Amino acid sequence: MVKRTLFFLACLLNGLFLFAQNGTPVDGIVAVIGKEIIMQSDLEKHYLDYTAQFNTVEDPMDTKCYILETLMFNKLMVNQAELDSIEITDEEVDYRINARMSYFLQQVGGNEKYIEEYFHKSMAEIKKDMKEMMYEQALIEQVQ
Fold it and tell me: Is the pTM of this model over 0.90?
């Protein structure tokens, strides 16, 4: 358990301290699971989503380690799905996206503008961004 925690912390710190010469962060690879990679920007995006959802974070490093562990587990499941030759159809992915969007719309009283303002994107862009996530989620569910 200690080795695993140290590994996650090392991966996280490695990604956090990558900077370009001008001081801006460099998007680097944090972890590789089979053919699947986790980028620093993916970790940061999920961290921002997490903090936005829960409004508070007691220990940012613990939270980022938890998020990294979750991302690594998901990529492991996606890699296993590929090894097991599990296939997900575009229709199933589209169904999942539409179901998720219907849920979002229900939460805001059916007004698409609220969702677009929250994500700072059009509905088409939001759906496009969700496609890979919904595909991976379907693969993970099939493996489990």
Answer: no
16 vs 2: CA distance, rounded Å: 21
Q: For residues 109 and 111, what is the distance between their CA atoms, to the nearest angstrom?
A: 6
Under the banding of pLDDT at 50, 70 and 90, the label for residue 26 is low
HSE-CB at 22 with a 13 A cutoff on CA atoms is 2
What DSSP letter does each residue of the chain carry, written as one string? -HHHHHHHHHHHHHHHT-B-TTSPBP--EEEEETTEEEEHHHHHHHHHHHHHHHS--S-HHHHHHHHHHHHHHHHHHHHHHHHTT----HHHHHHHHHHHHHHHHHHTTT-HHHHHHHHTS-HHHHHHHHHHHHHHHHHHHHH-
**Interval 57-84 mean pLDDT:** 92
